[in-house]
Amino acid sequence: MKKTYDGHVVVLPYPSQGHINPLLQFAKRLASKGLKATIATTHYTLSSITSPLVTVEPISDGFNVGGFAQVRSEELFLESFKTNGSRTLTQLIKKHQTTKNPITFVVYDSFLPWALDVAKENGILGGPFFTNSAAVTAVFSLIHGGTYRLPLRLEDCPVVILGVPPLNLEDLPSFLNVPESHPAYLKMKLNQFSNLDKADWIFSNSFQSLESEVVEGIREQWPAKLIGPMVPSAYLDGSIEGDKGYGASLWKPLDDGCTKWLETKPPNSVVYVSFGSMVSLTEQEMEEIAWGLQESGFCFLWVVKDSERHKLPKGFLDLTTQNQEKGMIVSWCNQLEMLDRDSVGCFLTHCGWNSTLEGLSLGVPMVGVPKWADQLTDAKFIMDVWRVGVRVKVDSVTGMVKRKEVVLCLNEVMDGGERSMEIKKNVGKWKELAKEAISEGGSSDKAIDEFVMSLKDTCNTQDMCLC
Questions:
Q1: Of 6, 8, 61, 109, which is the active-site residue?
Q2: Which domains can be identified in the chain, with CATH numbers?
Q3: Could you say which of 19, 43, 144, 350 is catalytic?
Q4: Is 19 in the active site?
Q5: 383-430: per-residue pLDDT in tens?
Q6: Exposed, middle or buried: residue 4 (CB in 10 Å: 0-12, 13-18, 19+)?
Q7: Is the pTM of this model over 0.90?
């Protein structure tokens, strides 16, 4: 006889690495608390997701062979995903209707509000999962509500949000002052709020002590439950057995060479460098960062995608190829494992929200090199609010970071001086607060328990499954 659960939640991520990871982690958390959790993901990403706690089922974005790469148009991809995703999500819900575990709730990436319409049309509950910080969500909420109009100009700043320091143009998502630069992406960000009033729950990958004032300030427009950080349990509370990774990778993993190399280095001596899966640096930017790392004198482990490797200066590549004593360049590695190593003393990062939460959760000081979107706001918080790192200053003419600035920032974080020690102390504090939030009885754990209990009550009331 098939096992019955206290409810069945379908979790629907936007099909990119930075969105799959936190939603899959949330699915694992729900499964660990007695719910049946199913990840509904596109055919292209299906084989990259695996977890013993979570079932994985396909839906279609209309580009089953290569996903977004097949179309290379944000607007066409999103329209196709809405049409095909709505149809195939409906099919998935109906498929489970006559089983012992019918679907009772759809948790969907906030980028995909059409999923809530599908849930309601099929008589089940639903709610969005916001993958950005509460502060970034607040900015877009105010724009959606008409408090601020686009494009944002210098005279509109600073943007003031309760619980957030004044935000200047360089602290705001990059395309708000040039909305025509990414029209489809901007539309998607604002559409997150289009049917929010119909949602039964709203989830955010943050935690109370980190952003409670921000959430309180926009609770009327965005009554979210903070359930983060959605980082594998092994690095926080250890409550989910064997949970050492997200369980999803769109890239081929390497061997354990990175780990072995780090084990040869003294504590707090290595700069771990990664700019995420979406950022593409120019050849000039790669050159400045490369020689900045070399001139800093610190050891470094730099993740450079194969498609970006040709941008590295040849002399720098020759140095790291011939002698890996000081530096190692790899195309992929498990970021959490790297950040968890004692030898890593600094994280040179693009300040994407997942990477920011990982840096905070594992207690690693950061040097922010934000490039676009929410990364600029995250970098502001890293430096001026949580004070767990510094942000590079870009050249006023070229808009690029210079090698001298890279050296300056790495020294500030890594040299063991007063500022360095303050940063290390602060990030250690946030590491403990992140662990506290997700551990049993913590604010995020209580919010998740509240959701689980509400589904159990729904399940009992409607007699939808054997509870």
A1: 109
A2: 8-239+440-462 (3.40.50.2000), 257-432 (3.40.50.2000)
A3: 19
A4: yes
A5: 999 999 999 999 888 888 999 999 999 999 999 899 999 999 999 999
A6: middle
A7: yes
